[in-house]
Structure formats: C-alpha cells, structure tokens
Design a protein that fits this description.
Layout lengths: L5 E6 L3 H11 L4 E6 L2 H8 L6 E5 L1 E2 L2 E2 H8 L7 E5 L4 H9 L4 E4 L4 H13 L8 E4 L2 E4 L4 E4 L2 E2 L4 H12 L5 E2 H8 L10 H14 L9 E4 L3 E4 L4
Parallel strand pairs: 1-2, 1-3, 3-6, 6-7
Antiparallel strand pairs: 4-5, 8-9, 9-10, 10-11, 12-14, 13-14
Amino acid sequence: MQDKRTNILIVEDDVPLCRGIELTLKEAGRVFTLCRALSDARRVLRDTLFDLLILDVNLPDGSGLEFCREIRADFHAPILFLTANDTELDMVEGLETGGDDYVTKPFSLAVLRARVNALLRREVRVSPRIYVSGSLRFDFENMQFLKNNDAVELSKTEQRLLLLLLNNRGRTCSRDWLLDRIWPGGGAYVDENALSVAVRRLRAKIEDDPSAPRYIKTMHGVGYAWAVIE
C-alpha cells in the first residue's frame, strides 16, 4: 500500500536554513516545496494542496503575518510561523492572524520537528481532499473527479473554482473574491465574464440539471455558493 503523500510548503528566504528544515523533516511520503518569497508562495498555492505551511514572518516582499491573513479563508491546513521576534505580543499576533504554532529563531531543529509532527497529527481546518455527495466524488489528492463513477475532466480554472466553493460551502463567495483567487495575478485584468463562463462549464460537468443547479447556486448581485452541506 502506498504511503499517503504529505505536502509541506516552506516559505523562507534563508536558503541554508530552508534546506536544513527540509532535511530535518524529511521522511517517507513527505514532499517539500521551497519558496523564497511570498510571490512564489502565492503561485504554488493556486495549484497544489498542502498539508502544512512553514512561514517566515519577515520576507523580502512582505509580511508573513499579512500573508496568513490573506490566505486563511482558502488555506485550511496548519500554519507554523518562523520569526526572530520573541515577544509575547508578537506571538499573540501570529496566532491571532490564523497561525497554529510559533517558533522563534534561533531554534533547535529537533524541537521544530516535534512541533511539525504534532501539527500534522492534528485534524484541524482540513480541506476536502475527498468530497462525496450523491453521484459526485472529488479526490483532490489524486486529481480524480467522478460523476456516476465516470471521470469528469476539469480544467485548472474549474478545479480552483470547485475547491474554493467546497472550502466555503454554505457561504456566499463574491465574484471579486473568486476572480482574485482563481486567476494567476488576481482578477484585475481578467474579463468579469470569464467567471460566469467557468461557472457555467463546471455546472455542465457536475450538475444533473445545469439550468436548475443543486450544488452551485447563484447568489444574485453577489456571487456563488456551494449549497449542499453534509
């Protein structure tokens, strides 16, 4: 039986430290993605589901704390902060932005490993790696999407849209919010009609009756919502 793959994203501009963290945490089934800047992290988060984010607070292109606030609505796995700031106020701020743990530099790699292992054992804010409802089965781990046990081919855009709606099922996602998160670089230069087209195509693939959708509801004047909560 194949080990479950655990995807870990490390965002740290100190390259030797980044490599040291990877070597310390490395074990069977763990796959690491290393980023030196927030711009790189934004790009990989659009295409990959991660089980843990290790995030430096001070990065060349911005604050890890602000980045955490930015992504928390979409990113449901644990976030561990790395920082040189060791005051109680800094720690509280890190946790209040949505972080799950906080390690101050310099730190023992053995301690970091123990903290990471503890976070990975916790079942918190888990995104729907496998979602099943009626005739639908979406496996985001293996990128397999089924309806009535038949494969459904989804574009990258449709996959992003589906994941955002599922992660926020029961809540309305505004059009602007979706545009900013589905298209690389944000939605500022994307034709607003592109979202309507993506929704229409996704409905055509997963709904029994796209003209009267059960799952993806239009919230008129606002956006869209995944309406089925199970």
